[in-house]
Design a protein that fits this description.
By secondary structure, this protein is α/β, with parallel strands linked by helices. It is 38% helix and 10% strand. The chain has a 3-stranded parallel sheet with strand order 1-2-3, covered by helices on one side. It is globular.
Length: 120
């Protein structure tokens, strides 16, 4: 399977990308979102809330991948509609292992909605 990874560096850009606002008018809707809570401009909680409140985006699974192990952050993210919460491992090789496991699970086992379609 080929994975196309698109990275933005802050929460405002993430929402612009997902909504295909300038300069992302030609952006491809993602099949899966990896979201850090510690983003500048709009933090991950705000971005998650926007994604899960938008009928055009809410079907896209969102994995929180962050350094926070806070029970409050975990509960907040699930209450906002996160599909999964993972704490970033320490070390590059451990991080790569987690990324491969995410890929194996979400793209090999899970049935995802077709093409980021809006839910009924």
């Amino acid at each position: 399977m080929i994975v196309n990874l698109h990275v933005v560096h802050d929460g405002a850009s993430a929402l612009n990308y997902l909504r295909r606002h300038t300069p992302y008018a030609e952006a491809v809707r993602p099949d899966l979102i990896l979201l850090d809570l510690n983003l500048p401009k709009r933090n991950g909680r705000e971005v998650l809330n926007e994604i899960k409140s938008d009928p055009a985006l809410k079907a896209i699974p969102v994995i929180i991948l962050t350094t926070s192990e806070s029970d409050i952050d975990i509960a907040t993210c699930y209450n906002l509609g996160a599909n999964c919460y993972l704490t970033k491992p320490i070390g590059f090789q451990a991080f790569i292992t987690v990324v491969h496991k995410i890929d194996d699970f979400w793209f090999s086992l899970v049935k995802l909605p077709p093409g980021g379609k809006e839910l009924p």
